[in-house]
């Protein structure tokens, strides 16, 4: 008898501006964020802070108290879209991780310049209001 396995979900493309507004409302759900060269890991006594130096440079900071521990500098003009991967976990909904890759493209290649891993997936129907969510 064949075992029934659920079909794998395909990645979903999200416009960067929609993802950016959504992820800022979910800083308590970020497990880690980074680039191909470095990763910032969340912890109970740390918090994520989003800022903009100007319209062309966004910041994602990991802070303990008033001390900056790490910072990602994003250039939104370079990001074509966000690739939302299906959840990775044990299948029971607990301890699932949802990967969001911020994709940069040119004529010869496509790379994930930045990534965010959250404790839940993107809800395109969620109305983003000012404030922060906890899940």
Describe this structure in words.
The structure is a single chain. With 135 residues, the protein is mainly β. It has a single domain (12-118), classed as Heme iron utilization protein-like fold. It contains one helix and nine strands; from the N terminus they run βαββββββββ. It has one helix at residues 16-24, and strands at 12-14, 30-34, 39-41, 47-54, 57-64, 67-74, 81-84, 98-105, 110-118. The strands form two sheets. Strands 1-7-8-9-2-3 form a six-stranded antiparallel sheet. The chain has a three-stranded antiparallel sheet with strand order 4-5-6, with no helix packed on it. Strand 8 (98-105) and strand 9 (110-118) form a beta hairpin. The longest helix has 9 residues, at 16-24. The radius of gyration is 16 Å and the shape is globular. The N and C termini lie far apart (39 Å). The mean pLDDT is 86.
């Amino acid at each position: 008898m064949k075992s029934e396995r659920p079909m794998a979900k395909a990645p979903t493309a999200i416009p960067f501006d929609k993802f950016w507004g959504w992820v800022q409302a979910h800083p308590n759900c970020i497990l880690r964020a980074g680039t191909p060269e470095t990763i910032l890991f969340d912890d109970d006594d740390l918090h994520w802070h989003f800022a903009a130096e100007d319209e062309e440079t966004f910041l994602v900071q990991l802070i303990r108290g008033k001390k900056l521990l790490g910072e990602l500098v994003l250039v939104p003009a370079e990001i074509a879209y966000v690739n939302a991967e299906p959840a990775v976990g044990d299948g029971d909904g607990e301890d699932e991780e949802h990967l969001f890759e911020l994709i940069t493209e040119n004529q010869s290649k496509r790379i994930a310049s930045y990534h965010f891993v959250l404790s839940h997936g993107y809800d395109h129907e969620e109305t983003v209001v000012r404030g922060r969510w906890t899940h």
